[in-house]
Structure formats: structure tokens, C-alpha cells
Design brief:
Oligomer: single chain
Strand order of the largest sheet: 2-1-3-4-5
Number of helices: 8
Radius of gyration: 19 Å
Number of strands: 15
Shape: globular
Helix content: 25-40%
Distance between the termini: 43 Å
Order of helices and strands: EHEHEHEHEHHEEEEEHEEEEEH
Strand content: 25-35%
Largest sheet: 5 strands, parallel
């Protein structure tokens, strides 16, 4: 069985790959893709696999954007941090899903479901695309975060946040330089933040448009960002993500 994995986090890809190999050593991973743009190009130049594992939130956009450019009719198992309403959309369209963090039992269940449906008619994802668009359009954006500071609980308005970054934990960084740990992953945050205000520039950071003070054209097509307040390392947007990022900045 040929399997394609579309996942922007290397650790999640390695975990999924390892579990698949344990379940069925005959499974062949045809490729690992990390973005919408990369996936669209791959589908245009390669034969479709037997099964796709697809993360909902990729580094450059929501993955259902792939279906707006390419007609994909093979079975897909979505991996997601969506809540029960989005999961309902998957159930309506008879498509399997796995909530992160991924476990061996959930993968085994999906593989069994795939094998039982292998001779069914080609899948159509038109309804799913509409459901996900409707879901994303009706979700209110997060207005504030409750964080711990010593023995206090602080209310942080989202408008006061310059950027989020992932280290061992996920942190909020405010305009005044203060930072606080929060119990969200970047994948979860990008689903609840206003996309006109915040953008995921790479696997480590989500930034507010107001935090970007300077953009420098860098070597090999990358972009170097200067943020307010400054981050502790140099911040880059990759060559692959530069076009999407510039389009977002130019809205």
C-alpha cells in the first residue's frame, strides 16, 4: 500500500511513519509533504497514492486549499486538533479523522476502515470543503488569554500580543516584551486567531502584522523579519513560504 503523508511537523511525521511501519511493514511512504503549495505541485506531477494522511493546519494554510487546485479522489485520513463541530463535518462526509496526539490504536482503526472501503466509489471532498469553510467563517476569533503569573491569573487581550513562539512550551510575547506560557499548540492557535491579524511564518512562530517592523530580502529567496519586541534569534520566512507571506502582508 502506497501512503502519502502531508504534515508540517517533523516529529509528528516521524511518529506517524513509525506507527505505520509497525502496523504493516509492507506500507510504502511515497513522500512527505509539508505545505499546501508543495502538495499541489506534487499532485500535479505524481501518481496518486492508495491512502493519504493529511494534517488540517499546514505551515502555509489550511490543507483543504489543496482540493481547490487539485481533484483528489483517493481516501484521506485527516489528523487534526479541530473540536467536535469540525469532527461532525468529517463524519457527515464519511471520512476518517484522528485527533492529535496520534496513537497506534487510532491508526490501526483508520487502516482497518480504509481496507474495508477499498472498493467503494471514488471519494468526493466538495461537501467537506464547504463544511470546513462554513465552520471557519462562523467561529469567533479568540479575544483574550488567561495566563498564570506567580499566584495571579492575568487576562491578556489578544490585541496586546506581538507573537507566539514554540520552545519546550508555547509562549505569548506582549508588545512590552513580557512573555507567558500557555497551554495551546501553534496548530490550535492558528485556528482561533484572526487570520487578518496573525500569520504562521514557520513551524516555530505565529506573528501579528503589527509586530513586523522590517522585512529584508535574504539569500536563496528567504525573508528576514525584524520584530517588536525582538526575538532571541534571527527570524526567517522560508523561500517556499515567502510568496504566501508577502500576499498576506499586501492585503
Amino acid at each position: 500500500m502506497n501512503v502519502l503523508i502531508i504534515e508540517d511537523e517533523e516529529s509528528a511525521f516521524e511518529n506517524l511513519k513509525c506507527i505505520l511501519m509497525e502496523i504493516d511493514p509492507s506500507i510504502y511512504i511515497v513522500s512527505w509533504l509539508q505545505s499546501v503549495e508543495q502538495s499541489i505541485q506534487w499532485f500535479k506531477t505524481n501518481d496518486f497514492p492508495d491512502l493519504i494522511f493529511l494534517d488540517i493546519q499546514l505551515s502555509d494554510d489550511l490543507s483543504f486549499k489543496i482540493f481547490e487546485s487539485v481533484a483528489v479522489s483517493v481516501p484521506i485520513v485527516f489528523t487534526t486538533a479541530f473540536d467536535e463541530y469540525a469532527i461532525k463535518a468529517f463524519e457527515i462526509n464519511s471520512i476518517d479523522y484522528i485527533l492529535k496526539p496520534i496513537s497506534r490504536s487510532s491508526i490501526e482503526k483508520s487502516i482497518t476502515k480504509f481496507k474495508s472501503c477499498i472498493n467503494r466509489a471514488p471519494y468526493s471532498y466538495n461537501n467537506l470543503i464547504q463544511d470546513l469553510k462554513s465552520f471557519s467563517q462562523h467561529q469567533p476569533y479568540k479575544e483574550r488569554f488567561l495566563v498564570n503569573k506567580a499566584d495571579e491569573l492575568l487576562i491578556i487581550p489578544t490585541a496586546d500580543i506581538s507573537y507566539f513562539f514554540k520552545d519546550n512550551e508555547t509562549y505569548i510575547v506582549l508588545k512590552n516584551g513580557e512573555r507567558y506560557a500557555i497551554k495551546f499548540t501553534l496548530d490550535e492557535l492558528i485556528l482561533v486567531l484572526n487570520p487578518n491579524q496573525f500569520y504562521r511564518i514557520n513551524r516555530q512562530m505565529i506573528v501579528s502584522v503589527n509586530a513586523i517592523s522590517k522585512i529584508t530580502l535574504w539569500f536563496k529567496g528567504k525573508l528576514k523579519l525584524q520584530l517588536i519586541p525582538e526575538f532571541n534569534t534571527t527570524v526567517f520566512v522560508s523561500r517556499e513560504g515567502a510568496t504566501k507571506f508577502k500576499a498576506w502582508m499586501d492585503k
